[in-house]
Amino acid sequence: MGGREGAGTGQAAALPKFGKTIYAHVMSTMNISLPEGLKDFVDQQVAERGYATSSEYVRELIRRDQDRLHLRGLLVAGAVSRPTRPVDAAYFERLRARVRKGAIARR
């Protein structure tokens, strides 16, 4: 892909896409076989949901699955962690104060 490499990130320069920032990555190729019904479904999703290609649609599905698995891992880690103090109004006020203090320190 064209573009200059970002500072040691392995990504090309950011490309704007309808208000989102995307990065051009070096792509590998993977061929998959689908039954006709699934291929028709993918083609329909590409057409109706504004994806440029079926590859873009599949990449988005994979990213969402990665996000889902990451969230699941966080939830499981939270479930097995030891209990903490109750979260109440005072907790959130202390949290807001910490955030404000950090924002002031960064100025």
Automatic annotation (TrEMBL):
Organism of derivation: Luteitalea pratensis
Name this polypeptide is given: Antitoxin ParD4
Entry superkingdom: Bacteria
One biological process term in Gene Ontology: regulation of DNA-templated transcription
Family: Belongs to the ParD antitoxin family.
